[in-house]
Amino acid sequence: MRILAVDTATKSCSVAIVEKESIIAETTLFIEQTHSKHLMKMIDTALNLSGLTVSELDGFAVTRGPGSFTGLRIGISSIKGFAMASGKPVVGVSSLDSLAMQCCFSPYLVSPLLDARKGEVYYALILSLIVITFIDIDHQIIPDAITLPGIPIFFFASFTLAAITYKDSLLGILVGGGSLLLIAEIYTRLTKKEGMGGGDIKLLAMIGAALGWEGVLFTIFIGSLIGTLIGIILMLRTHKGLKLAIPFGPFLSMGAISYIFFGSSIINWYLN
């Protein structure tokens, strides 16, 4: 199978043509100019070096982030154009997964990082949230093995990041864990039964350590909004009413991931 792969997620722009497990052509540029000026020429160069035409390719691959929004848009739109014109399949590849695959035989936990070009760092926090989401859906439990180490890890990481200060991280932990603890306590006193598990509290504390207090408030709002909408739909379909138990962890994860990718844009849109 012959695959044309494109990576525009970071400052470097790469194009490669792979046949089975071998790279038969590759070209990379590392310059400040936008990728739109060079990507099509690089694709043409890679095709010429390989001696192939677009019609001889079996499919396409492109990085889908996280990374530069402009760069990702250029790469994805270009490859989708090729895929639509040729009728060949296209697959999106996580930038973090592609980095981690370079250490696929490592016996240790691999945590890939990406420079966001503003002194910020994308963590593999998203991967942890995805894992937590599926575990919470299947077993209605959020593993302490993920959240408890995550709280100090993200707090100490704040000392090296420009995107968040250690004060914001500490306040995020207090606001995140404290707010849900307060809500859980009030609910328990009013209803005489437990309505929110300790796993949700520790999860939001970890999110607060990584995203700060602003990220916590955004996560709670979006998570509650999505959870309410889905909860109403499920209650109507199952006819269980308020007796239906729905895990909150997945909705908190959705809120946090939404903040990572769209938080600033949504907040600025709302304020303006």
Order of adjacent strands in the largest pleated sheet: 3-2-1-4-5
Largest sheet: 5 strands, mixed
Q: Count up the helices.
A: 8
H/E order of the elements?
EEEHEHEHEEHHHHH
**Category from helices, strands and their pairing:** alpha/beta
Morphology:
elongated
Mean pLDDT: 83
Give me the count of strands.
Answer: 7
* Uncertain parts: none
Span between termini: 49 Å
- State Rg: 22 Å
> What is the helix fraction of residues, given as a range?
55-70%
Keywords:
272 residues; alpha/beta; Nucleotidyltransferase, domain 5; 2 domains; 5-stranded mixed beta sheet; two-stranded antiparallel ribbon; 8 helices; elongated
Give an overview of the whole structure.
- The chain is of the alpha/beta class and 272 residues long.
- The chain has 2 domains: 2-99, Nucleotidyltransferase, domain 5 (2-Layer Sandwich); 123-271, no CATH class.
- Helix content is 57%, strand content 13%.
- It has helices at residues 39-50, 69-86, 95-100, 125-139, 144-157, 166-191, 198-238, 249-271, and strands at residues 2-7, 12-19, 22-30, 59-63, 90-93, 114-115, 121-122.
- The strands form 2 sheets. The protein has a 5-stranded mixed beta sheet. Strands 6-7 form a two-stranded antiparallel sheet.
- Helix 2 (69-86) links the parallel strand 4 and strand 5 (90-93).
- Helix 4 (125-139) crosses helix 8, helix 5 (144-157) runs antiparallel to helix 6 and helix 7 (198-238) packs across helix 8.
- The mean pLDDT is 83.
